[in-house]
């Protein structure tokens, strides 16, 4: 009853806030309103108004307003970022008049922040944006040592999951005198409504996990159902994607279990047989394996059969199991390669490691579930065409997941004696220190983001709404491994994020 009351109030507030777009405000004011709406988690409520403002009011005024004043640079930098974020063409030349290549950037923090954030939406070959990124990072660090500046230089907006930033932006808006009270109230209502939806979804997957009754029999693996849901909700946070969140949560928890079978529990012979069983999708193939591994296989087999049926019913589409199964086959084969390296004491080159590691990251597997779970095409070929169109995005998203994982877990894995990570591979291959290796890995992550930006921008607009959830997988990798291993350590930053985003409502 209370939730229904909130939704009625939210509808009334949306109508009132919508009127703000038609008020006579400056182009900068329009830009800042769009930015505020995005950051408060309300972009889905004002898509039409935002599109109209960007295409008509803002674009026209920005084209005719090109002086070199610092306040104009701020507006231009903000406009550049918003245009790119919303899928419009925005040339880096928009910023060329304000940057001469010698580091003479403006000295005010707001403009530098916008330039830095915009530079992380760059694509291959955009050298001006690369220069802007380097110089704005340097100048921001010289101007301020605050935690906010450190966060955005290390983890820019383009790499973060928007929904998990909303609460912080709402609290910040509460302390700002210029915030429209109706907009703030709407944001708080929206946050609490979506959080309540997430809580109901989480209860469902916890019930599924308990009914599965396998934790007691698998003392070697991680019980991370809440963290798995946190990851899934970051991929698809919108209220209407409850089914997707539940499917992904189950898949992520199963990924952790299967990963531990290959990394911790199974002998090489056992994981070879387990891989054959996955390829044949036949429970008979695991009958001679230890009971623990048989339990893992049955849980995976039965859960995937159920998820496939649910996807087909919900989307009224063609069979999905053969394609989701192929994702698991690819994933397990990649884990087997790593297990073989470990048991034979082989340290691969970084190139060899990544050729296999992008698949073992589980990015491709998750992407298959996202695409098949969200499309409502009537034929398999239409969905496969979408998979083909975004295969570069899937690849680079998977690389980012792999490398972020390595950055967060490398030291612990080295101490534990696990298979060498990308950092270890590069250290031994090039005979360099861990710091140098980490810097090199960061450069690969940066380049992968440039490729994602490029390939997303050339996608048909009809595909972007689905593919943005694939890209959210990479963003969630930054969230989970930014301060260590978000799956391995339960009392760290991830626990705090779970509390504020999934548990505690805004008052």
Automatic annotation (TrEMBL):
InterPro entries from the UniProt entry: Isoprenoid_synthase_dom_sf, Terpene_cyclase-like_1_C, Terpene_cyclase_plant_C1, Terpene_synth_N, Terpene_synth_N_sf, Terpene_synthase-like, Terpene_synthase_metal-bd, Terpenoid_cyclase/PrenylTrfase
Protein's UniProt keywords contain Metal-binding: yes
Gene Ontology biological process terms in this record: diterpenoid biosynthetic process
UniProt xrefs under CDD domains: Terpene_cyclase_plant_C1 (cd00684)
Annotated Terpene synthase metal-binding domain residues: 212-451
Keyword entries, A-Z: Metal-binding
Gene3D superfamilies: Farnesyl Diphosphate Synthase, Terpene synthase, N-terminal domain
Positions of the Terpene synthase N-terminal domain: 3-148
GO molecular-function terms, A-Z: magnesium ion binding; terpene synthase activity
Pathway(s) the chain acts in: Secondary metabolite biosynthesis; terpenoid biosynthesis
Short name of any one Pfam family annotated for the protein: Terpene_synth_C
Protein name: Alpha-farnesene synthase
């Amino acid at each position: 009853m209370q939730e229904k009351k909130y939704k009625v109030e939210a509808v009334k507030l949306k109508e009132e806030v919508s009127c703000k777009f038609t008020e006579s405000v400056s182009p900068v004011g329009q830009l800042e309103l769009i930015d505020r709406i995005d950051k408060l988690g309300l972009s889905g409520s004002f898509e039409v108004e935002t599109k109209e403002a960007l295409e008509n009011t803002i674009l026209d005024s920005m084209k005719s307003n090109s002086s070199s004043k610092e306040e104009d640079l701020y507006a231009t930098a903000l406009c550049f970022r918003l245009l790119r974020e919303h899928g419009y063409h925005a040339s880096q030349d928009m910023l060329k008049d304000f940057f001469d290549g010698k580091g003479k950037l403006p000295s005010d923090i707001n403009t530098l922040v916008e330039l830095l954030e915009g530079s992380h939406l760059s694509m291959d070959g955009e050298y001006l944006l690369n220069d802007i990124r380097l110089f704005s990072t340097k100048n921001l660090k010289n101007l301020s040592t605050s935690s906010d500046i450190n966060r955005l230089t290390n983890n820019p907006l383009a790499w973060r999951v928007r929904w998990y930033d909303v609460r912080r932006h709402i609290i910040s808006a509460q302390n700002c005198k210029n915030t429209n009270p109706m907009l703030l109230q709407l944001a708080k209502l929206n946050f609490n409504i979506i959080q309540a939806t997430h809580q109901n979804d989480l209860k469902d997957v916890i019930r599924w996990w308990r009914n599965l009754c396998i934790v007691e029999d698998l003392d070697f693996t991680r019980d991370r159902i809440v963290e798995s849901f946190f990851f899934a909700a970051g991929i698809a946070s919108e209220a209407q994607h409850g089914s997707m969140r539940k499917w992904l949560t189950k898949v992520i928890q199963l990924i952790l279990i299967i990963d531990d079978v290959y990394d911790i529990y199974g002998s090489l012979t056992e994981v070879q047989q387990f891989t054959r069983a996955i390829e044949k999708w036949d429970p008979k193939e695991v009958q001679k394996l230890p009971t623990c591994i048989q339990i893992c296989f049955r849980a995976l087999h039965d859960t995937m059969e159920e998820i496939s049926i649910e996807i087909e019913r919900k989307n009224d589409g063609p069979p999905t199991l053969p394609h989701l199964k192929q994702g698991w086959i690819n994933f397990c084969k990649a884990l087997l390669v790593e297990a073989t390296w470990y048991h034979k004491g082989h340290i691969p080159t970084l190139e060899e490691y990544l050729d296999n590691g992008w698949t073992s990251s589980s990015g491709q597997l998750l992407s298959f579930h996202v695409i098949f779970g969200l499309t409502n095409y009537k034929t398999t070929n239409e969905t496969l065409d979408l998979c083909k169109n975004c295969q570069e995005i899937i690849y680079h998203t998977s690389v980012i997941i792999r490398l972020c994982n390595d950055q967060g877990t490398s030291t612990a894995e080295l101490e534990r004696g696990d298979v060498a990570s990308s950092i270890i591979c590069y250290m031994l291959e090039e005979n360099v220190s861990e710091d140098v290796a980490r810097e090199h890995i960061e450069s690969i992550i940066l380049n992968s983001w440039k490729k994602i930006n490029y390939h997303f921008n050339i996608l048909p607009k009809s595909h972007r709404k689905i593919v943005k959830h694939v890209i959210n997988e990479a963003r969630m990798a930054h969230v989970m491994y930014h301060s260590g291993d978000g799956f391995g350590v339960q009392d760290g930053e991830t626990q705090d994020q779970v509390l504020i985003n999934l548990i505690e409502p805004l008052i």
